[in-house]
Design brief:
Helices cover about 40% and strands about 10% of the residues. The chain is an alpha+beta fold. It has a four-stranded mixed β-sheet, sandwiched between helices. Strand 2 and strand 3 form a beta hairpin. The protein is globular, with a radius of gyration of 17 Å. The N and C termini lie far apart (about 65 Å). The structure holds zinc ion (ZN).
Amino acid sequence: MASKPKPYSRDERSPKPLNERVSKYMRSNKSKNTKPEILLRKALWNAGIRGYRLHWKKAPGKPDIAFPGKRIAIFLNGCFWHRCPKCNLSLPKNNRSFWEEKFSRNVERDQEKITALENENWTVITIWECELKEDIRTQVDRIRNLLATST
Ligand SMILES: [Zn+2]
């Protein structure tokens, strides 16, 4: 019986990860100052892009990066937690129903944030962690182009 996973309780806490891959992803579940976020901020800085706010509370959904003057909001999504359509990572094998519920809540919440921002005339960009890892320049260009064309 020792190997049987404990049933999860229906609160916000995740069950203890049972393998290294899951626990690695779970460790990366910090909402602020994640590694991809720091990388992107550094790249924006190097590209001379300034004037953004981090986790700006005045914008709906507190986007990771917000350019208030241009009403441009950027979400930087971890592929595991936000269910990147490109990566399509498999669900952890244990506590499946917990994960399904948790992930669908995350995806739902992401969509709600985008809708709330768009309703207030924000332009929203979602950047996936894998896109950033693959080619950070392309993402910086994407932001730069949008800034240049927004009034
Ligand atoms: Zn991905």
